[in-house]
Amino acid sequence: MKNDNPSLNTPFRIYPALLLWILTGLIGIAFVVWWILQQAVTAFHIEHTKKETLLLAETIAIEIQRVLQDHASATEVWETKHLFTLYEEMGKPLGVVWIQVYDDQGRLLFGLDPNQIGRMYSELEGEPFPALQQAQVQLERLPPSHFLAQRGIRDVLEVYLPLPPRFRPAAWIEVYLDAEPLLARIRHLRQQLLGAFLALGLGLGALTWFFTRRADAIITAQQQTLQKTLEKLKRLEAHRRMMTSSLAHDIKNHLAAVQGTLEWFSQHLPEETDQDLLENGSRALIQATMMLDNLVAISRLEEEDLPVNLQPLPVVDFFSRLEAWAKPILSMKKASLEIEEPPSSLQVLADAHLLFRVGQNLIYNAIKHTPPETRIRLTARDAGSQGVAIQVQDSGPGISPEDLPRIFDKFYKGAHSHGSGLGLAFCRLAVEAMGGRITVQSQPGQGTTFTIWLPRSQSSSPGGGTKPSPEVG
Ligand code: ADP
């Protein structure tokens, strides 16, 4: 028996591939989660800093308000250096490195450089005064040319704060915070997160490794059991086939012996003996032999175990062999066989023995499933691109439309059949094994035509007429 299941021939290993896939997936998921978490940590720190800076800014604004009430001009305010001290005290824990306070018009009220007090934002920054509604915080990397960068500060948190009207004239504050302590904290947290994820990944990896190995071991064990069962089944199947074919062979020998005896009786019994009885016996023997042949052939064809020897075969030879075989059977039911002799050049590519058995089944069916005196016609024609079409036509009762789609199925037989339902199943398998196909046309009351389509042999030349042969019967 052919084994079409490669997975049992080649042991299937899930372990390395599955482990690789699971680990790749875990690493991907861990990376995404880590990235989201570290973004959240950064955002959290910035938000925290924003709140603290806002408090600082409000305190500075109140102080500016108070000082402005006590002094005549802004310049005077800064000369007191009062606010510098304030800024030193309050801003240090936050890492404030630069503060500017503007009024509504964008005029500088307070800055670390007293020379710039009273100048407009647009003059200082070269841009229009921004219309800020809400506090904005952004992490900035200063260019090396920036004067703070020259003091060793590279990363700043740049905070823009609009102040509520009660702080007027101070309306707007710009603060730079040294971002290094914040970045150091974030870096530290990221490292901790990474460590935690690595540990988690290693743990999950180890678990995956353990479970895939277990699964692999279980599957391998089951595979081995299956393999053993399969081999046992193969042995049993081979044994069954051998038994069946030797049994069929023995039964056929016995049937042949009985057939010989019947023939001897038909020749030696007196004339007045009832010949019908002998013919019935003979017909039953032929049917039993064909059933046995079909049964064995079908199982071997299904398992692709029957050698198919394709060779150029003149259709005329096929017909004359069938004609010789059919002669005694036809006489039993007074049926007639008409053969349209094909041109000798018409050849098919076929296995002579298999094709002969297909012909036997079709002719036997045409006799068996029809009333006495049925006319059977055997024709062949060149069907161009479709190869050669060989037809077996009878003038019987035809096949009902309900039966027609199923007659080639194994064990399917019509309501009135005493057969096995194997004949046409064998015909289909055999013709297909030779690279052809078989079709049927039938209508109740109008006879039945089976057509065998086979490849034309290369040595066969298309064309040529047909001439009818004498009726046999
Ligand atoms: P079986 O002849 O053993 O019943 P087959 O497989 O040879 O099985 O045929 C299947 C069925 O097809 C038959 O039972 C019969 O009903 C129908 N059949 C086959 N050939 C003919 C025919 N020439 N005329 C009418 N019916 C047929």
Note down, in words, how this protein is organized.
It contains 10 helices and 13 strands. Strand 9 and strand 10 form a beta hairpin. By secondary structure, the chain is α+β, with helices and mostly antiparallel strands. The protein is rod-shaped and about 155 Å long. It has a domain of 171 residues: Heat Shock Protein 90, CATH 3.30.565. The longest helix is centred in the middle third of the chain and has 89 residues. Strands 11-12-10-9-7-13 form a 6-stranded mixed sheet, with helices on one face. The protein starts with 5 loop residues before the first helix and ends in a 5-residue tail after the last strand. Helix 2 runs antiparallel to helix 6. The structure holds adenosine-5'-diphosphate. The site of adenosine-5'-diphosphate has 21 residues, from helix 9 and helix 10.
Largest β-sheet summary: 6 strands, mixed
β-strand amount = 15-25%
Mean pLDDT: 84
What is the radius of gyration computed over CA atoms, rounded to a whole number of angstroms?
A: 51 Å
Q: CATH homologous superfamily of the domain at 284-454 - what is it?
A: Histidine kinase-like ATPase, C-terminal domain
**Uncertain ranges:** 1-11, 461-473
Run of helices and strands: HHHHEEHEEEHHEHEEHEEHEEE
CATH fold descriptor of the domain at 284-454: Heat Shock Protein 90
Oligomer: single chain
Number of strands: 13
| Strand order, sheet with most strands | 11-12-10-9-7-13
Shape: rod-shaped
- Report the helical percentage: 40-55%
CATH architecture of the domain at 284-454: 2-Layer Sandwich
Tell me which ligands are bound: adenosine-5'-diphosphate
Please tally the helical runs, counting DSSP H or I stretches of 4 or more residues: 10
What is the CATH C level class of the domain at 284-454, in words? Alpha Beta
First and last CA, distance: 44 Å
By secondary-structure content and strand pairing, the structural class works out as: alpha+beta
